[in-house]
Amino acid sequence: MPSSTLANPRTIKVGFLGFGTVGEGTHRMLSDNVDEIFRKTGAKINITSIGIKDASKARCLPSELFTTDLKSIVTDPKIDVVLELIGGEELAGEMVDLALDHGKHVVTANKELIAKQGSRLISKARKKNLDLHFEAAVGGGIPVVQALKHQLAGNDVIKLMGILNGTTNYILTRMEAEGANFADVLADAQKLGYAEADSTNDVDGFDTMYKIAILAAITFGKQVDLSDIHREGIRSIGTEDMHYAEVFGYRIKLLGICEEIEPDTLMVRVHPTMIPRTHQLAHVDDVFNAVWLKGDFVGDLMFSGRGAGGDPTASAVVGDLIDVCRNIVNEGDGSAIPYGEGMKSLPISELETRYYLRLEVQDCPGTLGQISTTLGRRKVGLTAMEMKSKVGGLGEIAFLTHVCREEDFVAAIEEVGNLDCVTKIESWMRVEQS
Amino acid sequence: MPSSTLANPRTIKVGFLGFGTVGEGTHRMLSDNVDEIFRKTGAKINITSIGIKDASKARCLPSELFTTDLKSIVTDPKIDVVLELIGGEELAGEMVDLALDHGKHVVTANKELIAKQGSRLISKARKKNLDLHFEAAVGGGIPVVQALKHQLAGNDVIKLMGILNGTTNYILTRMEAEGANFADVLADAQKLGYAEADSTNDVDGFDTMYKIAILAAITFGKQVDLSDIHREGIRSIGTEDMHYAEVFGYRIKLLGICEEIEPDTLMVRVHPTMIPRTHQLAHVDDVFNAVWLKGDFVGDLMFSGRGAGGDPTASAVVGDLIDVCRNIVNEGDGSAIPYGEGMKSLPISELETRYYLRLEVQDCPGTLGQISTTLGRRKVGLTAMEMKSKVGGLGEIAFLTHVCREEDFVAAIEEVGNLDCVTKIESWMRVEQS
User: Are the beta carbons of B315 and A295 closer than 8 angstroms?
Assistant: First the structure.
């Protein structure tokens, strides 16, 4: 029989680490939905303490709830569940370790920590029959992590692609809509609060890398070494590239992509990608995130929603907490699903895909012939071409290629760059077909 | 400690009821993924018997697995889990009841049964600490049922809309793309196997009604009486309506919609709807299904994927079965989440929304003035108008209205129909703004 009944509800004591926008949103969501959560879990949630860095900040909750002594929370014998909402690897990792050592279930929103130490931490939780949930670490409120762990668990996932960073998707959407360049949109996004002053984590693809690493680990069952993941950001995308993407029927998105090449060998990568306008991911705009996947049984599936922000992330944290509560009330054994380490991710040079290439050339007869012959010698065939004249006898050519191997493509464009008729390799980009 | 270890895996015995495309797909998925399922659950699945109607059909599995005596399966003391894949209400309901009576966990793909008897069956399962899962009943392989029950459980859902029937979405997509009329596309869809010979269940919205009823029950916690749900199908949509939808910037989809009007009072409805091209649901085409919702914390969220077919549905059945196995291995108490009955759904006359209206009129000065004055008297304001001349002094006018009350709109168009300058009310449709 469930240990909790209407007459005698189980009280579950929760400690917060961190009280920024996610912590504040989580607190508000728990307070707003006490009855609903009780109906779904049979438990009353009691927030006993909130660990913070700066005790001097004004907060609209009783001051005795707050402490700067985080260790006192993760070691408190009365606390059942710790919500880790600090972010970053070091302090957060130390606290999660201590919390597990002291027999606490953990819910975390920390993508960096799970991407780097998930395998070890989840195994530790499993050995102690504790829950360690991290839905909020990927895609904000989008419930993709649990779906991969549970509902889709019977599928072999063939490929998974995600728009996993709201800031870069917002910037790309505006660049396309306004014909504006990257630097201007970034500056404006920073002014509006859509991008942080230090934009490296978002714009250079680190945030996306952490998230695709987590999705790869839970999908394929082993953690990938982050240093094996090819990572490019969106700084070098020009307005001309946006133009040619449209001409060719594509849109440019920063994607995290993983696919299984052979058992225990993935290709995991983060880079700007041209995807066809007919693909569902092409319609995910502004700050929205999405995860698309193809499973052997489920077929094509997509989740989309708000990938960041206090309230959507709180939704995921509370969803995880509800699962922990249900597990405590039902006296289950903890539902952490361990995964190992040492998943191999192939170098990007072994990728086989289509490419977009933009060149500045001498605008004269024979140029196209020389370029296509040079590419062809490296087994790079062309499927589409657009050319326009520029001032001073120069021209611009954009191509789409057939599927070829990245190392062939890279070698080919080096040779193309040495042709007399080619004055500059302006840019190139990987293209997804479906 | 988990009762199952690598050295001593727990074997879970499963009986099938039904072996059509979903049953066959489920069997194949379980066979293909034995190791993966063991890794995720700690259990080995053993299919002990398969209940079928027609023993004479050739099947590529040992004949001793099959029986036409379904009762022998649901009462077999050795069986742990019953997969109900028969469909329909009567026989399936009887078998699920018996299975629960005999202490078996149940996974079902049966939308009609859950829509009609879900509250009673889930409560029964809960009282016996058994699981009763039904992810496959809504949206095929799209994991929306579990997401609503678990990850999104802390949200107040403000509105939920779904493209829940693949056949009608396929027909509407083709009508729009080809400018073809309903009857021709239906006939072709039947020839191609996308629509059944008896298309009533799909085309007249029954299938969508069952599914939106289930989504409403798990989202808002109480079952709605199906007779309270307003239901319209897609038979009356004309090629002209498709044309004006495009002119006004909309697409026509058959939606199941539920929203909370006040606590314990919903508006649940099924009808063709114009939705803006900027809405994510507008890009869900062909046989794809999608569920979109707005939660108070998570914001806008959408799931899309294959809503029918043997393999996608099998994906959901196996996902549920994996959860049951994990629960058995972890010695949990069953995770059925009961909901009550008696949720009120308001009559469609109380709906407040925007409308599309198409009229055949006398093509002469003053016509528009008379119509808009008549509508205005009933508090129906206009936001867009398109008119074209037809032969014989006739014309066609299409309008979009401001938000108004359905009973006002219906009364208004009755009066409009009585005007001398209006020769025919061709069609009208509800319009969603966001």
Answer: yes
Range 209-228 of B in CB contact (< 8 A) with A: 221
Q: How close, in Å, is residue B90 to chain A by CA atoms? A: 28
Contact A63, A125 (CB under 8 A): no
Residue-number span of the structural domain to which B247 is assigned: 146-305
Tell me how many domains chain A contains.
Answer: 3
Q: Which domain CATH number covers A390?
A: 3.30.70.260
Instruction: Mean pLDDT check: name the lowest of A51-60, A355-364, B1-10, B300-309.
Output: B1-10
Catalytically active residues of A are: 211
Both A368 and A287 in one domain: the answer is: no
Q: Which residues of B touch A154 (CB under 8 A)?
A: 29-30, 33, 36-37, 314-315, 318-319, 321-322
d(CA A29, CA A26): 5
Residue A7: predicted pLDDT? 57
pLDDT mean over B326-352: 86
Q: Does residue B169 or residue A2 have the better pLDDT?
A: B169
CA B17, CA B317: separation in Å to the nearest integer? 13
Is residue B4 one of the residues assigned to a domain?
A: no
> Quick one: B95 and B157 in the same domain?
no
Cβ–Cβ below 8 Å for B330 and A326: no
> Do both A325 and A360 map to the same domain?
no
Interface mutation target, options B1, B144, B150, B173, chain A, most CBs of A under 10 Å = B150
Per the annotation, the verdict on B211 as an active-site residue is yes
Interface test with chain B among A150, A285, A318, A324, by most B beta carbons within 10 Å: A150
What is the pTM for the complete model shown? 0.93
Q: Of B339, B357, B385, which residue is a domain's last?
A: B339
What is the reported pLDDT for B3?
Answer: 46
**CB proximity B289 to A under 8 Å:** no
Phi, psi torsion values for A429, nearest 5 degrees: -155, 150
Strand extents, DSSP E, A217-264: 222-224, 230-231, 250-262
Closest CA to B277 of B310, B302, B250: B250
Regarding whether B219 and B128 lie in a shared domain, the answer is no
Residues B21 and B169 in one domain: no
Q: How confident is the model at residue B2 (pLDDT cuts 50, 70, 90)?
A: very low
pLDDT tens per residue across span A118-152: 999 999 999 999 999 999 999 999 999 999 988 99
Q: Which candidate in B104, B116, B211, B253 is catalytic?
A: B211
Per the domain annotation, does B5 fall within a domain? Answer: no
Half-sphere exposure for A53 (CA within 13 Å, toward CB): 9
Does B166 lie in the same domain as B289?
Answer: yes
Residue B227 belongs to domain with CATH number: 3.30.360.10
Q: Is A37 on the interface with B (CB under 8 A)?
A: yes
Q: What is the pLDDT of residues A259-304, one digit of tens each?
A: 999 988 999 999 999 999 999 999 999 999 999 999 999 999 999 9
ipTM for the assembly: 0.91
Minimum distance, in Å, between the CA of residue B234 and any CA atom of chain A: 25
User: Would you say B26 and B314 are in contact if contact means Cβ atoms under 8 Å apart?
Assistant: yes
A4 belongs to a structural domain: no
Cβ distance of A298 and B129 shorter than 8 Å: no
DSSP B128: T
Do B150 and B299 lie in one domain? The reply is yes
What whole-number percentage of chain B has pLDDT above 90?
Answer: 83
Residue in the structure block whose two tokens are 């979109």: B292
- For chain A, the residue count is 434
C-beta atoms surrounding A235 within 10 Å: 15
B276 and chain A in contact, CB less than 8 A: no
Q: Confirm whether B246 is domain-assigned.
A: yes
Banded pLDDT at B5 (limits 50, 70, 90): low
Does residue A235 sit in the same domain as residue A372? no
Looking up residue A86, the CATH number of its domain turns out to be 3.40.50.720
Q: How far is B381 from chain A (nearest CA, A)?
A: 32
pLDDT at A2 over 50: no
Grade residue B59 by pLDDT with cuts at 50, 70 and 90: confident
From the list A40, A143, A333, the residue facing B147 with the nearest CB is A143
Q: CA dist B119 to B85, B304, B340, B341, Å?
A: 19, 26, 6, 6
